[in-house]
Design a protein that fits this description.
By secondary structure, this protein is an all-beta fold. Helix content is 0%, strand content 49%. Strands 2, 4, 5, 6, 9, 10 and 11 form a 7-stranded mixed β-sheet that branches. A 4-stranded antiparallel β-sheet has the order 1-3-8-7, with no helix packed on it.
């Protein structure tokens, strides 16, 4: 069955960096767009970034452009989110998600993981 497992979250100070990982299994990873989204308690889901099959195209929410980098390793069935210059407003639970083929990489997901908490605070 499809599984997505996020890791790498934690408590950091403003300006620090974190690298999130998403280990995928149960499907042909290299044939799917993949995305990261975040969701804070009581708030709506917030698209963060997306990456095409081979990583040749990457898309970002405006607020993270220049600070976050999405990447993937299809040999390892793993996706990453390098987050630099973190801000308190980046605090959230971060999820990796599989994009429904033909759907929007911003919102059309059929599977996602359990999430990893990122807290940015001094």
């Amino acid at each position: 069955q499809v599984q997505l497992v996020e890791s790498g979250g934690g408590l950091v100070q403003p300006g620090d960096s974190l690298r999130l990982s998403c280990a995928a299994s149960g499907f042909n990873f290299s044939t799917y767009y993949m995305s990261w989204f975040r969701q804070a308690p009581g708030k709506e889901r917030d698209f963060v970034a997306s990456i095409r099959w081979s990583g040749e195209r990457r898309y970002y929410q405006d607020s993270v452009k220049g600070r976050f980098t999405i990447s993937r390793d299809n040999d390892r069935d793993t996706m990453y989110l390098q987050m630099n210059s973190l801000r308190p407003e980046d605090s959230s639970v971060y999820f990796c998600a599989r994009v429904i083929p033909g759907g929007s990489y911003v919102r059309d997901f059929d599977y996602w993981g359990q999430g990893t908490q990122v807290t940015v605070s001094s």
